From TrEMBL:
Pfam families: Glyoxalase_4 (PF13669). PANTHER family: METHYLMALONYL-COA EPIMERASE (PTHR43048), METHYLMALONYL-COA EPIMERASE, MITOCHONDRIAL (PTHR43048:SF3). This is Methylmalonyl-CoA epimerase. Keywords: Metal-binding. The lineage of its organism: Bacteria, Bacillati, Actinomycetota, Actinomycetes, Kitasatosporales. Belongs to the methylmalonyl-CoA epimerase family. InterPro entries: Glyas_Bleomycin-R_OHBP_Dase (IPR029068), MeMalonyl-CoA_epimerase (IPR017515), MMCE/EMCE_epimerase (IPR051785), VOC_core (IPR037523). The keyword NADP does not apply. It comes from the Bacteria. It comes from Kitasatospora phosalacinea. Transmembrane segments: none annotated. Residues 4-138 form the VOC domain. GO terms for biological process: L-methylmalonyl-CoA metabolic process.
């Protein structure tokens, strides 16, 4: 069951400049940052709020680390902006299978590693009304 908005992914050309915009404009601080080479991104997670199921909601600011990454390709076509939304679930495997059964393409056979040790998969934007949609199971069991 999808229980919350885990994060909104925002693509940018310059992560440090974008982090500074969110700090100076809204007062949001970086909760966590990492490089995910498999996804081809350098990212910063800004925690916006804790949620009733013990989880949290974040903004995920994404800068590509290589030209052939999905985010680099998207930025070249669209410029900076909202790249994807992510729903939180205790069971990414079960929810992905159930959604695939409804005819929506799930992009990975098995969930991959996401921010903070989470397990993630994606649904194809062309099957989701133009919205690239991610499913996330947090590494922290108290988040569910
Ligand atoms: N949102 C909405 N539509 C998108 C999109 C996005 N983020 N990315 C691509 N599309 C659309 C394109 O506009 C294009 O539509 P048209 O054919 O109408 O022009 C179509 O999907 C195909 O796009 P493409 O540019 O040819 O790109 P690919 O098919 O090579 O890749 C996708 C698209 C979704 C399979 C790829 O971006 C992907 O695998 N994404 C999942 C992984 C990811 O995004 N990782 C980065 C974030 C990591 C994280 O969150 O931790
Ligand atoms: Co994401």
């Amino acid at each position: 069951m999808l229980t919350r908005i885990d994060h909104i992914g925002i693509a940018c050309f310059d992560l440090d400049r974008t982090v500074e915009f969110y700090r100076a404009t809204y007062g949001f601080e970086v909760f966590h940052s990492e490089v995910n080479e498999e996804q081809g991104v350098r990212e910063a997670m800004l925690k916006i709020n804790d949620t009733g199921d013990g989880g949290a909601s974040y903004l995920q600011l994404l800068e590509p680390t290589r030209e052939d990454s999905t985010v680099a390709k998207w930025l070249a076509k669209n410029g900076e902006g909202v790249h994807h939304i992510a729903f939180g679930t205790a069971d990414v495997d079960g929810d992905a299978a159930a959604i695939a059964g409804k005819g929506v393409r799930v992009l990975y056979d098995e969930p991959r590693r996401g921010s903070m040790g989470s397990r993630i998969t994606f649904l194809h934007p062309k099957d989701c009304g133009g919205v690239l949609t991610e499913l996330v199971t947090s590494a922290d069991p108290s988040a569910h």
